[in-house]
Amino acid sequence: MKVVPWDQVAQIPHVEEDILKSVTDEQTVRFTHVPDPYTEDHLREFLAAPPTGVRRYAIVLDERYAGNVELRSMSDEVANLGYTTAPWARGRGIMTQAVRIVTQGAHEEGVHRVELRAAVHNHASRRVAQRAGFTFEGISRHAELLRGTYNDVALYSHLATDSN
């Protein structure tokens, strides 16, 4: 498993096909803000450079796109981390590894607090947070509006002073 900067994503074989399979997957649509339906324009926009304040990384496993991790700056010291795992790559522990790598890199660059939010019923994502060494802080009620429904989210954090 490798975590590579987003500017290298085009070098991954069949990346467009694998991303399309990932973003149209039922679980991805259920728990993320990917557009539904997902168009070629959405794909082009996603493959382009991330927006200002967002660092995006591709996860590569067996020379295939296996997902992505995004780190969104909230301030100089705080960032929010989000991720999506390709359906074929789930259940292998790779997202836990990728989250650890990106979180450690953020701390090394001076980010003191990395936050991670997951829908309370997204048990797989919550397991990733726990296994990656994040601390559960509580439930934020109706903290996310997704596809017309307010959802409660579990808040996790990892501080630069935490062990991995």
From TrEMBL:
Keyword Transferase: yes
GO MF annotation list: protein N-terminal-serine acetyltransferase activity; protein-N-terminal-alanine acetyltransferase activity
Occurrences of domain N-acetyltransferase (ranges): 10-162
Signal peptide: none
InterPro entries membership: Acyl_CoA_acyltransferase, GNAT_dom, Ribosomal_N-acetyltransferase
UniProt xrefs under SUPFAM superfamilies: Acyl-CoA N-acyltransferases (Nat)
Family annotation (PANTHER family): ACETYLTRANSFERASE (PTHR43441:SF10), RIBOSOMAL-PROTEIN-SERINE ACETYLTRANSFERASE (PTHR43441)
Protein name stated in the entry: N-acetyltransferase
